[in-house]
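Hey, resending since the last one bounced:
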Amino acid sequence: MREYRADLHLHTVLSACAEVEMIPPLIVDEALRKGLALIAVTDHNTTGNAAAVMEAAQGTALTVLPGMELQTREEVEILCLFDTMDAASAWQAYVDGWLPPIENDPERFGPQFVVDAEGDFAREEPRLLQAPALVSLEEAARVARALGGLVIPAHIDRPAKGLMSVLGMWPPELVADAAEVSPNMRPSQARARYRFLPADIPLVSNSDAHWLDWIGKTMTIFVLDAPPSVAALRRALRGEGECRAYVP
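The structure tokens again:
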């Protein structure tokens, strides 16, 4: 068994709301400096910079999972995490079919940069990635899990785009692996506040970092019986054997 300090909710410069410093080599260096062993790249409605961060982490002690923070048609955000870029790309292809055909306005919303592993500019993403995809929360979760993904509703306590704040309940048809509380709330506080939160849904916390200093500010510790993977994280969230997950 081994403990892994994890921050599973990070943004890069492909998220218009992220700072320009959020490029692969600096993200990896900061995560290692904070003692993290596992991170996930979760830009808004895209996996476009995940491979670059994974490449930047090669040869280090840091594991990087490709992922996405999807905004569903209910304007609720969920984290969808995968083991490989092949799975993440299949998920991206699915999401692309639900994104509205709206162009980004960099002057209004901020630029969306695709970069390489060194952080150098590759191209600018023209689509508006911060608009909700036209897919339901339950359907998106079902497809992400079918593709081998881990599904975690993001910052459920936040007034904007948080599941419990937006919907006021946990949808009965929603199947997820965990729920994330924001850095502003402890899991115990969430349990006390949200009486409709299923008792069997484990709670995690991540930084939702949009700038470097915030990486690792909040984390979840996973006690795993194997190297980090979706399957290993799921065993920890379920508390199988000696595996577990907790917010320090």
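The longest strand covers residues 2-10.

Sorry for the duplicate.
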